[in-house]
Amino acid sequence: MFLAAAHGDTPEVHRLLDAGVDPRGVRGPQGQSLLHVAHRAGDITLIRRLRSAGVDPLAPDSLGWSAVRAAQTAGAPAPVIEALRTGPHND
Questions:
Q1: Which of 9, 26, 37, 68 is paired with 58 by a 20 to 30 Å CA distance?
Q2: How far is CA 54 from the centre of its chain?
Q3: Model pTM?
């Protein structure tokens, strides 16, 4: 699931979520959550689903970076950063 998210394969991540995979325990090699890489694809629906499933956008990776900071540093678009900040149900 992490590799799919990291490579922008959002349909696969959605499929795995639909199949019941719990995204809260999915981590990358440096302790990144799915939200640390989900911003790359710009799929706000996925970000909201992950937030709804309990993935914390402020949880740090092994470098101490939150998903919000990772997205900001990567230059993610404002709507993506806002989705990370505001939660699953806000526009």
A1: 9
A2: 11
A3: 0.89
In Å, what is the CA distance from 8 to each residue of 2, 48, 83, 89?
A: 10, 16, 17, 22
91 located within any domain: no
DSSP letter assigned to residue 66: -
> What CA–CA distance (Å, rounded) separates 41 from 51?
16
Q: Environment class of residue 27 by beta-carbon count within 10 Å: exposed (0-12), middle (13-18) or buried (19+)?
A: middle
CB 43 within 8 A of CB 75: no
At 66, the amino acid letter reads S
Could you tell me the mean pLDDT of each successive run of 10 residues in the chain, 91 residues long? Answer: 95 97 96 95 95 95 96 95 75 36
